[in-house]
């Protein structure tokens, strides 16, 4: 049987940074990099749930406007729950694409993957189609669920201004104007609702939880 090669986010990030530096002006790159560093320093205590605690139940809309309830899913399988920022974020696209690659390994371990952001269902559908994602991508308007798992923050104004200059209408991705976003984080929730794995790579949103960490935790 052929063994799956688990993608490395660190390697993908290196290539993404090189590509981004070629696409953006030096000034734009500096703005985003400085904001990422500032968020890293500002947010040092991020996770709202720890291993052994009970995950709060929730019901959110998927890309087909269907209601997905966490505890209903847990009746048959474990859940890998990951929080991301938005379709416009290249780091989100990279990591969700890599998670799609290892989805067979996640499912083989008796789990399913759910990704959550405060985006509208239409934008959730966009990122799902863009990366050919075959797992649920849910919309958490106002971060009602996200804030129970991870830290929520406003996108720095300098980044928003630079996004506008680059042609991105940030508010169009969300239902509430000036929407805050979650610091990326990933959890594994057992069928009894208990959290068995929690990880974030900090306030610097360029860093994400590796697929290999998730697979190792599921198979522990």
From TrEMBL:
<dbReference type="GO" id="GO:0005737">
    <property type="term" value="C:cytoplasm"/>
</dbReference>
<protein>
    <recommendedName>
        <fullName>thioredoxin-dependent peroxiredoxin</fullName>
        <ecNumber>1.11.1.24</ecNumber>
    </recommendedName>
</protein>
<dbReference type="InterPro" id="IPR036249">
    <property type="entry name" value="Thioredoxin-like_sf"/>
</dbReference>
<feature type="domain" description="Thioredoxin">
    <location>
        <begin position="49"/>
        <end position="220"/>
    </location>
</feature>
<dbReference type="Pfam" id="PF00578">
    <property type="entry name" value="AhpC-TSA"/>
</dbReference>
<dbReference type="InterPro" id="IPR050924">
    <property type="entry name" value="Peroxiredoxin_BCP/PrxQ"/>
</dbReference>
<dbReference type="GO" id="GO:0045454">
    <property type="term" value="P:cell redox homeostasis"/>
</dbReference>
<keyword id="KW-0049">Antioxidant</keyword>
<keyword id="KW-0676">Redox-active center</keyword>
<keyword id="KW-0560">Oxidoreductase</keyword>
<dbReference type="GO" id="GO:0034599">
    <property type="term" value="P:cellular response to oxidative stress"/>
</dbReference>
<dbReference type="InterPro" id="IPR000866">
    <property type="entry name" value="AhpC/TSA"/>
</dbReference>
<comment type="function">
    <text>Thiol-specific peroxidase that catalyzes the reduction of hydrogen peroxide and organic hydroperoxides to water and alcohols, respectively. Plays a role in cell protection against oxidative stress by detoxifying peroxides and as sensor of hydrogen peroxide-mediated signaling events.</text>
</comment>
<keyword id="KW-1015">Disulfide bond</keyword>
<dbReference type="InterPro" id="IPR013766">
    <property type="entry name" value="Thioredoxin_domain"/>
</dbReference>
<keyword id="KW-0575">Peroxidase</keyword>
<comment type="similarity">
    <text>Belongs to the peroxiredoxin family. BCP/PrxQ subfamily.</text>
</comment>
<dbReference type="GO" id="GO:0008379">
    <property type="term" value="F:thioredoxin peroxidase activity"/>
</dbReference>
């Amino acid at each position: 049987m052929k063994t799956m090669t688990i993608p490395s986010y660190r390697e993908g990030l290196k290539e993404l940074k090189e590509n981004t530096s070629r696409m953006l002006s030096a000034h734009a790159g500096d703005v985003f990099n400085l904001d990422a560093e500032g968020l890293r320093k500002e947010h040092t205590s991020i996770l709202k749930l720890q291993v052994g605690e009970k995950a709060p139940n929730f019901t959110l809309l998927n890309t087909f406007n269907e209601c997905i309830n966490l505890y209903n899913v847990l009746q048959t399988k474990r859940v890998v729950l990951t929080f991301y920022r938005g379709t416009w974020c290249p780091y989100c696209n990279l990591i969700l694409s890599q998670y799609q690659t290892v989805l067979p390994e996640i499912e083989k371990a008796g789990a399913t993957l759910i990704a959550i952001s405060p985006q509208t269902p239409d934008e959730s559908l966009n990122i799902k189609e863009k990366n050919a994602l075959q797992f649920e991508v849910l919309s958490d308007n106002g971060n009602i669920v996200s804030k129970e798992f991870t830290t929520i923050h406003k996108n720095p104004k300098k980044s928003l201004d630079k996004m506008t200059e680059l042609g991105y209408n940030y508010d169009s991705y969300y239902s509430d104007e000036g929407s805050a976003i979650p610091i990326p984080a990933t959890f594994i929730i057992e069928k009894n609702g208990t959290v068995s794995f929690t990880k974030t790579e900090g306030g610097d949103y360029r860093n994400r939880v590796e697929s290999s960490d998730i697979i190792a935790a599921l198979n522990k």
